[in-house]
# Entry
Amino acid sequence: MKIAVLSRNRSLYSTRRLVEAARERGHEVRVLDVLRCYMDITSHKPKIHYKGEDIEGFDAVIPRIGASVTFYGTAVLRQFEMMGVYPLNESVAISRSRDKLRSLQLLSRKGIGLPVTGFAHKPDDIQDLIKMVGGAPLVIKLLEGTQGIGVVLAETKKAAESVIEAFMGLQANILVQEYIAESGGADIRCFVIGDKVVAAMKRQGAEGEFRSNLHRGGSAALIKITPEERSTAVRAAATMGLNVAGVDLLRSNHGPLVMEVNSSPGLEGIEAATGKDIAAMVIQCIEKNAKPNQTRTRGKG
# Structure
């Protein structure tokens, strides 16, 4: 097969591993900088050009689209879909998972466990908003934040009011969530491919840090997850319509809670923690499913 990898940086670990795994399995692979792609949008023969070249003949495309280029990246991916190229994750599913508010509403509709979450627009709603999520301590998140950036733990009601007022003063869209103290600054990253959790790791925040992101100095270790956690992760990925996803769970006193569903999960941490060849599993998923025009949306919303 001829596979395209949409990535802005070919030297990133995840991009390198996917290219290696595909070549080891006998496929032809090309890394394309999504921002250097441009589109010829016509009724009968949609095309993509790359650095002056008309590119075609790809069987599958692996989107590794960063959050900062979601709009343009999903437009390019949509063009590949119009050309009949199989996407590992569909453009509509990526857009859905990147919208934190929309994704939480969709998960809620499916009855999947979530932290109590509030969303408001006007500063005079702050008191009721704090009360709605169970009071302080609570977590305040920028809707557009990634990798733990724009996430604040407010330990007192007064601190929560000040942070919410500050964000609202900047016209920022925020979510307010209950703080799950029993998780102890740790979460579980479940790597889902198709309808299975193929690997899971526990991410523990650095001392004094409630965010467990590896980019923030957190550590990762192999973990055995429960059947309920496994089922929750698979259902969350399916709700977003994603074939491959990193589902982040918190262990709470009332079962697993989904924090986020990531459409471009990194491979470095999970491969190091579990010793599994996740990249090869991703390529096997493409081999199993890549047929022309296999781009019908799996979910709704």
Remarks:
- The chain is about 30% helix and 25% strand.
- The chain has three domains: 2-90, 97-112+182-288, 117-179.
- The mean pLDDT is 88.
